[in-house]
Amino acid sequence: MSQAKSSGVEIQTYQAAKKGNIHCGDSFYVTETDDYLLCVMADGLGSGEHAMKASQAVTNVARLHSDDDVEELMHKCNQAVLNTRGAVVAVLKFYKQTKQFVYSNVGNIKFYLYSPEGALVYPLPVKGFLSGRAQKFQVQRFRYEEGSRFLMHTDGLELKEVKSLFTRTYLIAGISQHLQSMLQDGKDDVSYILGSLIA
Fold this sequence. Notes:
This protein has helices spanning about 50-65, 70-80, 160-165, 170-180, and strands spanning about 1-5, 10-15, 25-30, 35-45, 85-95, 100-105, 110-115, 120, 140-145, 150-155, 190-195. α1 (about 50-65) packs antiparallel against α2 (about 70-80). About 20% of the residues lie in helices and about 35% in strands. It contains 4 helices and 11 strands; from the N terminus they run ββββααββββββααβ. The chain has a 6-stranded antiparallel β-sheet. Strands 3-4-5-6-9 form a 5-stranded antiparallel β-sheet, with helices on one face. The longest helix has 16 residues, at about 50-65.
């Protein structure tokens, strides 16, 4: 687990490989500038080293092109997984000045944003995966409020009561500890990015 805190964002991340595997098939990348916060997550198809290579191809591209808009990043991530197993991918970008975020995904990575007033935003996942074949991407735009919290995770984490997770505590570290307590079986690779957009 790792954590980071700036004047406007607090982040907790976690990743673990499937039980018995050396390599984790999930990868993620988080970066923050004065203008935006970018979170990119990829889950390579299958597990093990080949899945890891596919997901890392995505995050390597995100690292090189983090200033691009979300749709451009999705196209570049798609190109990056050509000749790999492929990966499910989600790209999330919060724009600090306009208090908007832009989200696009293909596959079963899930994303939730919980506002201080208790509203839960859950953009519906788009079926499929990135393989390098040309495709169109659905890009969704939303407004967010200061103090909102969010969670992005791969399918190794299964949640039934998302709202109750966010209402347990205002502390991101406490939510992160609770999530990890749910991950003892090691049945799958798992990654999450948990954040608070603090005022």
